[in-house]
Structures are given as structure tokens and as C-alpha cells.
Amino acid sequence: MKNRPCLTRPLALFLFPAALLAAAPEARFAAMSPEELRAYERDTLQRVADLSLIPPVINTDPLPKYDYDRLDYGMTIGIARTPRGRLWAVWVGGEDGPKAFMVGATSDDDGATWSKPRFAVDSQAPHLPLPRSVIVGNIWTAPDGRLWFFFDQTMNHYDGRQGVWVSVCDNPDAEKPAWSAPTRIWHGAVLNKPTILANGEWLLPVEFPAFAGSGPMRFANTELEPLRGANVLVSADQGQTWARRGCVRFPKPNWDEHMFVELKDGRIWMLARTSGDVMQSFSQDGGRTWSAPEPAPFKHPVARFHIRRLASGRILLIKHGRTIDTHEGRSLLTAWLSEDEGQTWSGGLMLDERTGISYPDGFQAPDGTLYVSYDRNRASDGEILFARFTEADILAGKLVSPDSKLQCLISRPLKPRGKK
Predict the structure, then answer these.
(1) What pTM value is reported for the model?
(2) Do the Cβ atoms of 411 and 68 come closer than 8 Å?
(3) Cα 320 to Cα 298: distance, rounded to the nearest angstrom
């Protein structure tokens, strides 16, 4: 039939009893109307999608299975710093697709050297009808020093629902850090860090893509359509509970990957990736309602960017392109500063001029130093890198601070490509 998914043998066995498969299933469906067939399909695919609701596990003993010589892919997730100065980095292995899983490593010497993977989250399991992937997320240090790890879990590459899971580490500087059992806080996925408002609320950017699931999952979870878009989740109790407050549906939707900045006049500025320009919207009521989307004041490819308020009051932007209003695809990663709430930008420090670089994430250390992680050539080099620099470096357009350094290696997969 036209526009029907092609079922693999494991998926067919899950959806249809063995006796039915052996007895010509078309005999059962011959009397069904197209609407009844579609309803049956949605019901059975929903059963597959619900396998993503099984809680994932944080594997704190990941070696040797997830050692570098077993990895052949690298896509960055994020970077964070603990109160005592330990750096944590998390990235994706497997692929940017159904086989994805995550690993994390640490550095106790400000990024000069990095540990072997300290944990892994891999939701693949034998005999599942479809792969179950962990593919996007972020890592963030809360004001109390606890380390928050946000990640998604979905069937296949995207099952039309996903799910934001969070695990918290109370002792991220310990020899053996302990992670809480992951809990699911909502649908969708988180790719960027929370923003803490002046009133103490935590704003979490949760993308819930405005399109159906991919592949055989494209008919699952259709009842969630009204919730799709760049969502705003809020916690007023330091992450103990979360509530959905608002949502923006941007034109030409893609993976939203949105971020927030609280402006000095009290408005919240949201910026999001689309299939065209980066778009922006503003809220004057804490994220409940939003202005009509419009293009952001900088040009960027269809890729993740990074923006945040700094302790100095300036706004930091990490983007692709030699100038603020141009780009050349996923290359030329640059850093910019704004002193007028994003109206104009200064600097243009070149962090990495090479092609195949993407997905910046970062934080500001207590001494003001800026750290930004990104990846390079995910499927070939698979490198996870970071840059360490200052606001003075950005304004000078070159490194002028003695401890600044660019293109620092976090990890590189060592498994030969194509080897099982």
C-alpha cells in the first residue's frame, strides 16, 4: 500500500502474532476499511513507541565496552565545570541516528588530559523490534554544585514523542561519582542548558519537533500534535518539579535547539534553529506568551549555535561565519559579544576555521574564563574539542590572555571505521 511503512522481520513479529503471520494476515485485514487499517497500524506502532518509556540506566562501569578503541563516531552534547574545577564532557557514539548512545569523561587538569569514559547511557537491547536510541541532551552545573545530565530516549531516530530524562550527580568531584536513577520529566528533547531567571525560576528549553516521527514511527504519537514546537518548561523548586509554561511554533520548523536570554528590561529572548534563518521571539510574561517569530540579528546555517548572558552583563554568541551577518556552512566557528542586548556585536574571535565543525555548547567559569565544546567531522575524525578563552580575546579578535587555548582535544574515537 502507498505510504505504508516497510516492516522488518523483528518489528513484524512484535506487531503480529506468529500464528497470524503463518495464516496469511491479509485474510484478517481484507474486511477492514482504510481507516480501520490505519487505526490498527497506529495502535501497534504505539506499542513499539512505548518501549521508550522504560527507564534508561546510567552505566558507571563502562569499560572496556565503551573505551575509545570501541568507538567510531563523535557528536558533542555539552561541557560543564564542577565547583572544584573538574570538567565534564558528554558526547554521542554510534551515529546521529537509531544506533546512538552517550558517553561522558572528565578532566581534573583544566582540559589538558581527559579520562577514559566514566559513564555510558546505551538503551540498545537485543530483541527490540526497533533500535532505541539516546541521541541528544546536555550537562549543566546548578548553583548548588550538583551536576544535571539531561538526555532523550526514543525509538528509532525519532518516534514522534521522544522524552526528556534527567539524572543528577550530587558528588561530581568524587573518585566514583554517583548518579540518580533517571526520571522522565516530559516529551521532546533538551539540547541546551537551563536559564535561571532573576526571580529564581529555571527555564528549560524543550524541543518537541513540529513534525511526525521518522521511518516506521511516522504514524505514532499523533495525538500530541497540539504540544509540538519550541517549548518552555519551568521549575520554581530547583528542578524538583517541572511545568510546561509556553511554546513557540517557528516557520520552516527543524530541530528547534532553542535557547533563552533574560534581557535587562525583563523580557525573555528565545532564539531557535529552523530550516531557514535562526528565528527569534520575545516574551514579556515569563514565557507564557510569545511575540510573532522574526529573523534573528545574525546569519547562521541550519545548525546549533550558543548564546548566553555573561557575568559582565554582556551577551556571548558562538556562531558560524567570519562576520555576524554571513556564514559558510558548518565551518568558521567564531565568538562574539554584545553590549546592547543583542542589537550589535563585536569581536569575531576565530575558534576553529576548519570545515565539518558544529554544535557549540559552553559555560563561564567563576574567574570569567569561557569554555566552548564542539565536534569535528563526526563520522570520520569524530573529534570532540573545546576552546578556552576570555572576553578580552573576543574583543581583540585574537588570543591575548595567557591561559587561553584553541582546538583542545577531549576525545577521538580509535575504532577503525566500518569495523564491527
Answers:
(1) 0.91
(2) yes
(3) 10
Annotated domain spans of the chain: 42-411
* CA pseudo-torsion sign 329, 330, 331, 332: positive
Tell me which of 70-84, 204-218, 358-372 is least confident. Answer: 204-218
Residues 311, 290 contacting (CB under 8 angstroms): no
Across 313-324, average pLDDT? 98
Q: Which residue in this structure is represented by grid cell 526514543?
A: 154
Which residues have a Cβ under 8 Å from the Cβ of 395 and sit 6 or more positions away?
337, 346, 347
Which residues, 6+ apart, have CB-to-CB distance to 291 below 8 Å?
Answer: 281, 282, 283
Give CA 131 to chain center in angstroms: 19
CA 58, distance to chain mean position in Å, is 17
pLDDT in tens, 365-409: 999 999 999 999 999 999 999 999 999 999 999 999 999 999 999
Q: What is the pLDDT of residues 28-42, one digit of tens each?
A: 777 788 888 888 877
Fold designation for 42-411: Neuraminidase (2.120.10)
| Exposure string for 297-317, b = 16+ CB within 10 A, e = fewer | bbbbbbbbbbbbbeeeebbbb
The one-letter amino acid at 389: F
